[in-house]
Amino acid sequence: MIGISPISNGENQMTEGLNGIIMQLEHQKAAIDKALTALRDVNGIGAPAETKPAEAPETRKSGMTAEGKLRLVAALKKRWAAKKRAAKKAAVAVPVEAAPAVATTPAPVKRKSTFTPEGRKRLAEAMKRRWAVKRAASAVKKSGRKKAA
Fold first, then answer.
1. Cα-flanking dihedrals φ and ψ of residue 63, to 5°?
2. Interatomic CA distance for residues 26 and 31, integer angstroms
3. What is the pTM of this model?
4. Which candidate in 45, 64, 92, 93 could, as Cys together with 40 as Cys, close a disulfide (CB 3.0–4.6 Å)?
5. Beta carbons of 5 and 12 less than 8 angstroms apart
6. Which DSSP letter does residue 55 get?
7. CA 93, CA 85: separation in Å to the nearest integer?
8. How far is residue 6's CA from residue 2's CA, in Å, rounded to a whole number?
9. Which residue, 3, 19, 2, is CA-closest to 11?
10. Domain map (residue ranges) of the chain
11. pLDDT tens digit string along 5-58?
12. Three-state secondary-structure class, residue 131
């Protein structure tokens, strides 16, 4: 039985080519390292100290700092305290005896008209003029058709 390779010939050649490139680069790296150590020995510098890669500053996941959260909490507490004080003052101002026993629905609020009487009059006049022009244009078209027929 003939074994079938999971890698096709084209892929096999590509990986061999890549492995060859990697080996060449490693040889070049070794040669560069040797050259650097030789230059350092000539200058008397010695081997460089191991440097740690710079750590990236810790990024915040939320958009607010701890100080900002504390300020926000303090402001919210202050706001709710003021709201509670106002509610207590309103409750004290209205005695229990004076409060109605059955809650009544508030009277519907009368809607404010959007037009003043002068504005309504101007609009009516403008619409009358508009329709007069439209009727005149329509009459011209109708009279033009009768003559042509």
1. -90, 10
2. 9
3. 0.26
4. 45
5. yes
6. P
7. 12
8. 13
9. 19
10. 13-43
11. 555 666 777 778 888 899 999 999 999 999 988 888 887 776 666 666 667 667
12. helix
